[in-house]
Write a structure and sequence with these properties.
The complex is a heterodimer of chains A (731) and B (150). Chain A has 731 residues and is an alpha+beta fold. Chain A has three domains: 221 residues, 2-Layer Sandwich (Aldehyde Oxidoreductase, domain 4); 147 residues, 2-Layer Sandwich (Aldehyde Oxidoreductase, domain 4), CATH 3.30.365; 280 residues, Aldehyde oxidase/xanthine dehydrogenase, molybdopterin binding domain (Aldehyde Oxidoreductase, domain 4), CATH 3.30.365.10. Chain A has 19 helices and 29 strands. In chain A, the strands form eight sheets. In chain A, strands 10-11-8-18-15-16-17 form a seven-stranded mixed beta sheet. In chain A, strands 22-21-20-13-29 form a five-stranded mixed beta sheet, with helices on both faces. The N terminus of chain A is likely disordered. Chain B is an alpha+beta fold and 150 residues long. Chain B folds into two domains: 75 residues, Beta-grasp domain (Ubiquitin-like (UB roll), Roll); 69 residues, [2Fe-2S]-binding domain (DNA polymerase, domain 1, Orthogonal Bundle). Chain B is 31% helix and 15% strand. Chain B is built from five helices and five strands, in the order ββαβββαααα. A five-stranded mixed beta sheet of chain B has the order 2-1-5-3-4, sandwiched between helices. In chain B, strand 1 and strand 2 form a beta hairpin. Chain B is globular. Chain B starts with a strand and ends with a helix. The chains are: A alpha+beta (731), B alpha+beta (150).
Chain lengths: 731, 150
């Protein structure tokens, strides 16, 4: 077990606190090897006043800042260990669902401690209540929040290893150097970190600086590095929840109601229980579970269970009704135009969108009397652990929750229904189970990006935009986990969490005079969730479309107009980059066109230029050029991958992918009718340019969705002459 | 229960299974081969793509009976003896994978395509229907083209 806290260990040597930040706080409790906990505070475990007060504008304090603050509060609980076999192990308090953060964090550790990247291990940390929401993954904040603590922890470890080597060789510590997971003496002698770890654990005060190195000394940070788990992925060895070998875990699937959140009134499982391989039929709050020796048997036995269903929570409700209620939920404009002023206005509607990660909801659970063990891909490990404990009536510390890699998330894995279901079935039948949602389950009962309605209005005169108003309404977003929980922990009251999230994530990047932005949520009891880029996915996309229409009204080119009104040099720089690299304004055939948009959030900014061909049976984005300024670039290859993935989300949500709600149930059931982009929808050319690159890392995971979506919509408008208003366009 | 014999990743296997059991679950639940993934169960997401006699197929749409006497290759058997197939190497060189879940299926699809068409056109690559929800399509295209030249 890692050493979590030993508050007295460091203090006893420096009772007056003279070493302050230099002080080594917590180390080597359970392990006789070097185990360093990051901290820049004097008293571990003491909460200190970095928690923001709500609400402030996004450009002063954004959601990521809340996550950074949450992480900072517990940074002395993050642990790095050097093992005798020369492995440097950092337990990552985040989820890996494809963002590439494990690779990025391994690079930071390796660079700072001077280890070979192949000697660094970055397992995902088990759920730890002492980490709280600091263990949540969301808000594109992982690398941003861990950048300082991880460099501190690794620099501290390096200093101790150097000190231990200096003592062993009786040489001045300053004369030693570090590289390749070893300390080197001027005479060429070397000692591996593994050979020094026990001695390093005994070092009271390091003899060399524990400050992180200057950026000029980075070897890995900033260099494109392939995923550290690439080989295991391409050879099929990477293990997802249902690939974990838990002895005796029985395949389990759940028969779910015909409408959202329907209930089980009664059921008869006797016929199913007579089928080959079927082991148990178990009632759950969400349906009826069938457990069998194989998934094939469990899936086939579903039809033999006779279930009488109660009503769902939105029976009778369809898209049309919701659309109407959302439109009514928007207050009328407060800023009338005067006689000599002109108005550009538009309303937009965005459909529900499922997350549809490739790996469906899955969990393995083994609940015994007095203990439980769960394997789950989760972005909210402590939330999942608490939910399982409550469901099976155990104390939280009796539940061990292993975080396993996830097959995509896009916001979905902040929620953890499969873990609770698996635990309940395991408890009921007294055996470990591996529970899987079918694709139909995920599509029809999984969560969705809430349907939204937007009313935008700009007033201009004499070439200036005098006022700009954006009123958004949407089906209430369930923020009860992950980043939403972090906001609650930071002092936001639950009913205002949605508006706090909105306020902290939205800011208009343009000088548009009096800017008014608001969100009204309409309550429906249905399974919604944060979806990659959350409110910005719709709100900023709508704004970027209106900006094109304002430019047209002003008789100005869309890029020239944006450059005129943009607030920051960084925004103009990324826009300039895509305009230049993408040959903005080049002559194109009728039915094809370019479109451009940008979006800033997470202390980063991105611009996107696409070319679209609308001459065929369905529009195709043929080319994309993106430019990102994300501050410090840890892994350029990973940053580009996130931009390309977000581009596909922009293409999908604008042109193709959405979910219809028909009488309380979602219509789409699989990838046959949920039209997420495939290879033939992807551009043939896609270039991602990274600009800037100094300071601290900004967020990137969700950054490019609104820029891509806006660019696709604007290109479509220019190619077809139509004003896009409802999304997806082909629905 | 009937038993079925076929060649799995160059080894002869015999498996007892119900006649209508999906080959995906035969591989995963009976034979412990977890490279092929469940993504839809109806052959549309193609995360379970494997080779049967060298052709890319969705094993969730087949049964054990369908492959009797045939050669079934999963991602685990694409390259012999712990090596890498040129497509796998190209995938690493282009840093394609994000979450990784669909990638075994994507790689098997690409390997089958290259076997049939050593120099595939963009139109050939466009015909790949495997879903990648992380949106790695641009790098998949580059990796296929890279593998085609090696």
């Amino acid at each position: 077990m890692p050493a979590h806290a030993s508050p007295d260990a460091g203090q006893s040597e420096d009772p007056a606190g003279l070493l302050t930040r230099r002080r080594f706080l917590t180390y080597v409790v359970a392990a006789p090897v070097l185990t360093v906990a990051a901290s820049s505070v004097i008293t571990p475990g003491k909460a200190y006043a970095v928690v923001p007060s709500p609400p402030q504008p996004e450009n002063i304090l954004d959601l990521g800042d809340v996550m950074v603050a949450a992480t900072k509060q517990v940074e002395d609980l993050l642990v790095l260990e050097v093992t005798p076999d020369n492995r440097v192990v950092f337990r990552v308090p985040r989820a890996e669902v494809g963002q590439g953060i494990t690779t990025a964090l391994a690079m930071v550790v390796a660079d700072e401690i001077d280890a070979r990247l192949t000697d660094v291990e970055v397992p995902l940390e088990e759920a730890r209540q002492d980490l709280g929401t600091a263990q949540s993954t969301g808000g594109s904040s992982s690398v941003r929040a861990l950048w300082d603590p991880v460099r501190s922890i690794a620099a501290e470890a390096r200093a101790r290893l150097v000190t231990a080597a200096a003592e062993r060789w009786d040489l001045p510590a300053r004369s030693l150097s570090t590289r390749d997971t070893a300390v080197w003496a001027p005479d060429g002698r070397s000692a591996t970190y593994g050979s020094l770890t026990e001695a390093a654990a005994e070092v009271a005060v390091p003899a060399v600086s524990t400050d992180p190195k200057p950026s000029s000394e980075y070897r890995l940070i900033g260099k494109s590095t392939p995923r550290i788990d690439a080989r295991s992925i391409v050879t099929g060895q990477a293990r997802f929840a249902l690939d974990v070998d838990v002895s005796g875990a029985l395949p389990t699937v759940v028969i779910r109601p015909p409408t959202l959140k329907g209930t089980v009134e009664s059921y008869d499982g006797s016929a199913a229980l007579r089928m080959p391989g079927v082991m148990a039929v178990t009632e759950l709050p969400s349906g009826v579970a069938v457990t069998a020796k194989t998934f094939d048997q469990a899936l086939k036995a579903r039809s033999a269970v006779d279930v009488t269903w109660g009503r769902g929570t939105v029976d009778g409700v369809s898209d049309a009704e919701i659309k109407e209620r959302l439109a009514k939920a928007i207050p009328s404009s407060t800023l009338p135009a005067l006689l000599d002023q002109r108005v550009v206005d538009a309303t937009f509607d965005f459909a529900f969108v499922n997350h549809a990660p490739m790996e469906v909801g899955s969990a393995v659970a083994d609940v015994q009397s007095g203990s439980a063990e769960v394997w789950l891909a989760t972005k909210s490990p402590t939330g999942a652990q608490s939910a399982v404990a409550e469901a099976v009536e155990l104390d939280v510390d009796q539940v061990t929750l292993h975080v396993v890699r996830g097959g995509g998330s896009f916001g979905r894995r902040i929620y953890h229904e499969p873990a609770v279901e698996a635990a309940l079935v395991s408890q009921a039948i007294g055996k470990p189970v591996k529970l899987m949602w079918t694709r139909n389950d995920d599509m029809r009962h999984g969560r969705v990006r809430p349907r939204s309605h937007h009313k935008l209005r700009a007033v201009h005169a004499a070439g200036q935009v005098l006022s700009y108003e954006h009123r958004m309404s949407c089906v209430e977003l369930d923020l009860g986990s992950g980043t939403g929980q972090a906001l609650v922990d930071a002092g936001y009251v639950n009913p205002t969490v949605g508006s706090a999230f909105y306020t902290l994530s939205q800011s208009c990047p343009y000088h548009f005079g009096v800017v008014t932005e608001s969100l009204n949520e309409v309550s429906y009891d249905m399974p919604t969730a944060t979806w990659r880029s959350v409110y910005s996915g719709q709100a900023r996309t709508a704004e970027e479309i209106l900006v094109d229409e304002i430019a047209k009204a002003l008789g100005t080119d869309a890029v020239v107009m944006r450059k005129k009104f943009l607030k920051t040099a960084e925004a103009r720089a990324v826009l300039d980059k895509v305009a230049t690299e993408g040959e903005w304004g080049r002559a194109m055939s009728s039915g094809t066109a370019q479109g451009v948009a940008l979006h800033g959030e997470y202390r980063s900014i991105a611009a996107c230029l696409v070319e679209i061909d609308c001459r065929g049976t369905k529009p195709r984005v043929t080319k994309a050029v993106m430019a990102l300024d994300v501050g410090r670039q840890v892994n350029p290859s990973g940053l580009r991958a996130q931009a390309m993935g977000s581009l596909m989300d922009g293409i999908s949500t604008v042109l193709l992918a959405g979910n219809h709600l028909d009488d309380g149930a979602f219509r789409e059931g699989s990838f046959s009718d949920f039209q997420y982009a495939r290879q033939a929808d992807a551009p043939l050319e896609c270039d991602v340019h990274l600009v800037g690159g100094t300071g601290k890392p900004g967020g990137v995971g969700e950054l490019c969705v609104p820029a891509a979506a806006g660019a696709v919509a604007n290109a479509y408008a220019r190619a077809t002459g139509k004003k896009p208003r409802t999304f997806p366009i082909n629905f | 229960m009937p038993s079925y014999a076929f060649k799995l990743n160059d080894k002869n296997v015999t498996v007892e299974a119900p006649a209508d059991m999906s080959l995906l679950w035969v591989l995963r639940d009976l034979l412990g081969v977890t490279g092929p993934k469940y993504g839809c169960g109806v052959g549309v997401c193609r995360a379970c793509t494997c080779h049967v006699n060298g052709q890319a197929v969705q094993v969730c749409t087949l049964t054990a009976a369908d492959v009797v006497g045939k050669k079934v290759t999963t991602i685990e058997g694409l390259a012999p003896d712990g090596g890498l197939h040129p497509v796998q190497q190209a995938w690493m060189d282009e840093d394609v994978a994000q979450c990784g879940f669909c990638q075994p299926g994507q790689i098997m699809q690409a390997a089958a395509l290259l076997k049939a068409k050593p120099r595939p056109s963009d139109a050939d690559i466009d015909k790949i229907m495997n879903v990648c929800r992380c949106g790695t399509y641009c790098r998949i295209r580059k990796a296929i083209k890279r593998a085609a030249t090696t």
